[in-house]
Specification:
Layout (H helix, E strand, L loop, with lengths): L2 H27 L2 H4 L7 H5 L2 H13 L3 H16 L6 E3 L5 E3 L9 H21 L3 E7 L2 H4 L11 H13 L6 E3 L20 H19 L6 E6 L4 E3 L2 H5 L14 E3 L2 E6 L13 E4 L9 H9 L3 E3 L9 H9 L1 H6 L2 E7 L9 H8 L3
Helix pairs in contact: 1-4, 1-5, 6-8, 9-11
């Protein structure tokens, strides 16, 4: 559909919604019971704002629930125009993608170089603490599930981002995990969420564990019990929220992902007060490390319980900074830190904490 026709259709939709809202307001204000709200209104009530306040209250009461209207509009735009809003890109077959994964970021290449400088300083800091870093760069969903992008364009910067980082980070004194090569045939990401699904998380955990085992010279002997949920349950996707589709009618939005959760319980020896030896592996990452059971899958693949120190919205280094500055006691007992971050964070501008870290004396 041409841009001109899309704009025309969206204009018609907007006017239709305005018409429905006006009709609701008129229907309410002409009813005898609602007209009583304005009985006895005189000049004093108009001048002191009381009349305007009554009108506002009646208008708000007359309008259909705003969430429902917004959801309806978002659903129509998604279903008719493949438009998922300014932050989300609509692929095919119900797939949604974060816009940050595909668009151009101003000064993105320079930002990659700055993140490399931060990584070098962090690696030197950890070396002084005698802690080894295993770096896991999570590829964009748009990279792995590119077939599901269909007609959505990917900027050259986003397309080349991972290759640029891999080349620049060659001399970085950390152990790196490559999970793009040999990725399972299925997408490995949720349709309506930014994150990997359980298959993707388990694959990444297995690859990461192989590198950690090399550092620790062997597999762990800790045991855990895994309990699966009885039945799959709908899983709310963060992209559904960003696209304002979570309140859209079911026939106007993608079908929900279904997830069968699992619970992992580690078996500790000793009495109730015996917590056992301090774990040697710390996971310091973003929401990917907290999603789809990645932390548990990593521990099971290692045969070692993992300390989870990841942060939602941690970006490139938020959890690592917190580990160094706020949780030094945990870091003091660690032998390996798994540093996970999403690929798209590499081209993002530095935040205040990153700027201060680069500007501080080494």
């Amino acid at each position: 559909m041409s841009l001109k026709r899309v704009l025309a259709a969206q204009t018609v939709l907007f006017l239709a919604l305005i018409f429905v809202a006006c009709a609701c307001i008129v229907a309410r204000l002409v009813s005898p019971s609602d007209r009583e709200a304005f009985a006895g209104v005189g000049w004093p009530e108009i001048t002191d704002g009381a009349f305007t306040k009554d009108v506002d209250n009646e208008v708000v009461a007359a309008l259909p629930i705003a969430v429902g209207l917004d959801g309806l509009q978002a659903g129509v735009e998604y279903r008719v125009f493949d438009d998922a809003g300014p932050q989300v890109r609509a692929g095919c077959f119900g797939w949604l993608f974060l816009g940050e994964e595909v668009w151009e970021v101003k000064d993105g290449e320079h930002n990659v170089a700055l993140h490399l400088a931060i990584a070098n300083r962090i690696a030197a800091d950890f070396a002084r603490r005698r802690v080894q870093i295993v770096m896991l760069t999570v590829p964009d969903k748009a990279r792995i599930a590119r077939a599901e992008l269909c007609s959505q364009a990917v900027s050259p910067q986003a397309r080349d981002r991972l290759a640029v980082w891999t080349r620049l980070a060659t001399g970085l004194p950390v152990r790196k995990v490559d999970i793009v090569r040999g990725w399972p045939g299925k997408p490995g990401y949720w349709r309506t969420d930014t994150h990997w699904d359980r298959d993707g998380a388990h694959f990444a955990a297995t690859r990461t564990a192989a590198v950690v085992d090399e550092i620790l010279r062997g597999h762990g002997a800790e045991r855990a019990t895994v309990t699966d949920a009885k039945a799959p349950q709908p899983r709310p996707g963060d992209l559904m929220h960003l696209a304002n589709l979570e309140h859209a009618p079911s026939n106007l939005r993608p079908p929900p992902d279904m997830d069968r959760a699992e619970t992992v319980s580690w078996q500790r020896s000793g009495g109730l007060l015996d917590s056992g030896p301090a774990p040697e592996v710390v996971l310091s990452g973003s929401s990917y490390s907290k999603n789809s059971g990645f932390s548990d899958a990593l521990g099971l693949a290692l045969g070692r319980e993992v300390v989870q120190m990841s942060e939602d919205g941690g970006g490139f280094d938020g959890a690592v900074f917190a580990l160094m500055n706020k949780h030094a006691s945990i870091l003091a007992h660690a032998k390996v830190v798994v540093w996970e971050f999403p690929e798209r964070s590499l081209t993002q501008p530095l935040n205040a904490a990153e700027q201060a870290y680069l500007g501080a004396p080494p």
